[in-house]
Design brief:
By secondary structure, the chain is mainly alpha-helical. It has five helices and no strands.
C-alpha cells in the first residue's frame, strides 16, 4: 500500500472517531439531557469526559499528523490556493481544521482553569459541529466540483 493511501485510511478512521464524538455530543447527548435528572447527567458527562480525555489526544495526533502528510502531497496545489476549485476547497478545509484545533486547545485551557461548563461547553461543541460539517462537505466536494 502506498504511503498516501495509509495516511488516507488513518485520517479517515481518526476523523470518524473525532467527528462521531462531536456529533454524538451535539445531536444526541444534548437531547438526552432533557430527559435525565441533573445528577445522573453529570455522572454520564463525567464518564464520557474521562474516556474522551484519554483517547482524543491520540485521535487528534493521528488526525492532524495524517492530514499534514496528505497536505504535503498537495503542496504544489496549496501554493496557489485560488488556481482551482480543488485548491480553494482544500485551503478552506485546512483553515477549518486549524479552527477545530484552536477550539480544542481553547477547550483544554478552559478545562484546566475550571471554566469549561454549561453554555461555554455547548457553544464550543456547536461551533465544532459546524466546522466539522464544513470539513466533511468540502472533503467530498473538492473531488466532485470544479470550475
Amino acid at each position: 500500500m502506498a504511503p498516501y493511501s495509509i495516511l488516507l485510511v488513518l485520517h479517515l478512521l481518526a476523523a470518524l472517531l473525532f467527528v462521531g464524538t462531536v456529533f454524538f455530543e451535539v445531536l444526541i447527548l444534548e437531547r438526552v439531557r432533557r430527559h435525565v435528572p441533573k445528577n445522573a447527567m453529570h455522572l454520564v458527562e463525567a464518564g464520557i469526559g474521562q474516556v474522551a480525555r484519554r483517547i482524543m489526544p491520540w485521535v487528534l495526533l493521528v488526525l492532524y499528523g495524517s492530514g499534514a502528510g496528505m497536505a504535503w502531497h498537495y503542496r504544489d496545489v496549496l501554493a496557489q490556493p485560488l488556481s482551482s476549485a480543488f485548491a480553494l476547497m482544500l485551503t478552506v478545509k485546512i483553515a477549518l481544521a486549524l479552527g477545530v484545533a484552536g477550539h480544542f486547545a481553547y477547550a483544554m485551557l478552559q478545562l484546566r482553569r475550571g471554566r469549561l461548563r454549561g453554555s461555554l461547553s455547548r457553544r464550543l461543541h456547536l461551533s465544532l459541529f459546524w466546522h466539522m460539517v464544513g470539513i466533511v462537505v468540502l472533503a467530498k466536494a473538492m473531488f466532485h466540483f470544479g470550475w
